[in-house]
Specification:
The protein has 433 residues and is α/β, with parallel strands linked by helices. It folds into two domains: 195 residues, Rossmann fold; 227 residues, NAD(P)-binding Rossmann-like Domain (Rossmann fold). Helix content is 47%, strand content 14%. The strands form two sheets. The protein has an eight-stranded mixed beta sheet with strand order 3-2-1-4-5-6-7-8, with helices on both faces. The radius of gyration is 23 Å and the shape is globular. The N and C termini lie far apart (54 Å). The structure holds nicotinamide-adenine-dinucleotide (NAD). The site of nicotinamide-adenine-dinucleotide has 27 residues, from helix 1 and helix 5.
Length: 433
């Protein structure tokens, strides 16, 4: 690939894209408005926790195929392909906030010195890529193409996912842009990764439809878990047997305290909003959003019932990130659960292997932070597992028993062995079993 590529935004998606495309042999410049992030990246320090990321970062920096710059204008002018990887968070209305995308679009228009391909990796509502085309056309008569290339990586497995995607979606109108995109992704094409070529709107909708479907699947099994608890069924066996049906599949049928993170909550809200805007019934997605909010409160209420019935004052929480293997706290169920518990003035002691810095920004000094899970558990009357980190799966239960003041464990992710715990004298409260 002879073309230079610029990736704008070096967050979870932009950074992984920059590193991944560079590893494929492309020459990449990663840029961001956050100058501190760029200075660290130049030194090989990743601003996010993601397994394997620093190794790939250092390797590609060393190869000189990957560089980082604070000069966004110059980086755009030097590049033929510009990836947009900035954030598209939710507005209060649930609509996607496109201000970062619009700001980047204007910067690209101002620096369009020759033909370029603008590739949208950020998740954007249907019609946004056309809006980008119209906006740039209104500012310059230079030629360009816009391509929609939504990203499906999972935080915690982002590097693996980037190199082994189930499919690559490319919404593209022009043959010239298609040829260049084929070149950018040559490595994946050689590896027989399936590519779906479609129009811009189809690519935009594939991303939202996929996330909304996965959010629905999680919400479905959460409600089945709540029902299982009432009737004495085991949700794990229900999910396992359901998953044996090839039409259903085992994946995304794990009950828990509700989905969170930077994608499912905001993307389901944005999809519901697109339906409202176009007067199309998206009632199923709206129910999923509501049910997921209820799930977080349902878990908080289950915990509340437990501490009220047992006169509990000190609670240890293991796990704050919205899922394991990430430091991301955005819309984590732990935020709702902890805020509910704080209403009852409990002493809350927490540990998370990677997200404590982010948690401190959210909770400040309202809760107590411990770098070590055993220090968090010391003297607690109740232990709650909120994130399925491997270190908690294999936690030394004998040590926990000696350290805890009480003997109740609420496991919202079903990662511990209830039978073993009960034999040891714990009262173990699982989810949906
Ligand atoms: N995080 C995920 O797992 C994931 C997965 C698939 C898709 N996505 C989508 O990818 C997009 C990015 O998500 P993220 O989690 O990486 O966001 P993020 O908030 O981690 O990163 C966004 C980055 O863009 C930078 N930025 C903002 N405005 C800028 C500008 N004008 N110029 C240059 N840089 C700018 C920010 O400083 C930040 O570093 C979103 O649309 C998201 O929905 C995210």
């Amino acid at each position: 690939m002879s073309e230079k590529i610029c990736v704008i935004g070096t967050g979870y998606v932009g950074l992984v894209t920059a590193i991944g495309l560079s590893d494929f042999g492309n020459h990449i410049i990663g840029v961001d408005v956050d100058t501190a992030k760029i200075e660290n990246l130049k030194k090989g320090i990743s601003p996010i926790y993601e397994p394997g990321i620093e190794e790939y970062l250092l390797r590609n920096l060393k190869s000189k195929r990957l560089e980082f710059s604070n000069d966004i204008d110059e980086s755009i002018r030097k590049s033929t392909v510009i990836f947009i990887g900035v954030g598209t968070p939710s507005l209060k209305s649930g609509e996607a906030d496109l201000s970062q995308v619009i700001s980047v679009t204007d910067t690209i228009a101002e620096n369009l010195n020759e033909y370029k391909i603008i590739v949208t990796k950020s998740t954007v509502p249907v019609g946004t890529n056309q809006m980008i085309i119209d906006r740039i056309k209104s500012k310059t008569d230079k030629t360009f193409d816009v391509v929609s290339n939504p990203e499906f990586l999972r935080e915690g497995k982002a590097i693996i996912d980037f190199f082994n995607p189930d499919r690559v979606i490319i919404g593209c109108k022009s043959d010239k842009a298609r040829k260049i995109m084929e070149d950018v992704y040559r490595t994946l094409r050689i590896n027989q990764t399936p590519f779906v070529w479609c129009n811009l709107e189809t690519a935009e909708l594939i991303k939202y439809a996929s996330n909304a479907f996965l959010a629905t699947k999680i919400t479905f099994i959460n409600q089945i878990a709540n029902l299982s608890e009432k009737i004495g069924a085991d949700v794990h066996l229900v999910a396992k047997a359901m998953g044996m049906d090839g039409r259903i599949s085992q994946k995304f049928l794990h009950p828990g305290p509700g989905y969170g993170g930077s994608c499912f909550p905001k993307d389901t809200r944005a999809l519901a909003n697109i339906g409202n805007r176009l007067n199309v019934d998206m009632s199923l997605v709206k129910e999923v959003i509501k049910a997921n909010e209820n799930q977080k409160l349902f878990v908080a209420e289950k915990i509340r019932k437990c501490y009220k019935n047992n006169n509990i004052k000190t609670v240890a929480i293991l796990g704050l990130a919205f899922k394991a293997e990430t430091d991301d706290m955005r819309e984590s169920p732990s935020i709702v659960v902890i805020n509910e518990l704080l209403k009852d003035n409990l002493i809350i002691k927490v540990n998370d292997p990677k997200s404590m810095d982010n948690a401190k920004i959210i909770f400040g000094d309202k809760i107590k932070y411990f770098e070590n899970e055993f220090d968090a558990v010391k003297d607690a009357d109740l232990l709650i597992i909120l994130t399925e980190w491997n270190e908690y799966r294999n936690i030394d239960i004998n040590r926990i028993k000696k350290l805890m003041n009480g003997n109740i464990i609420i496991d919202t992710r079903n990662i511990l062995d209830g039978k073993e715990l009960e034999k040891m004298g714990f009262k173990y409260i699982a989810t949906g079993r």
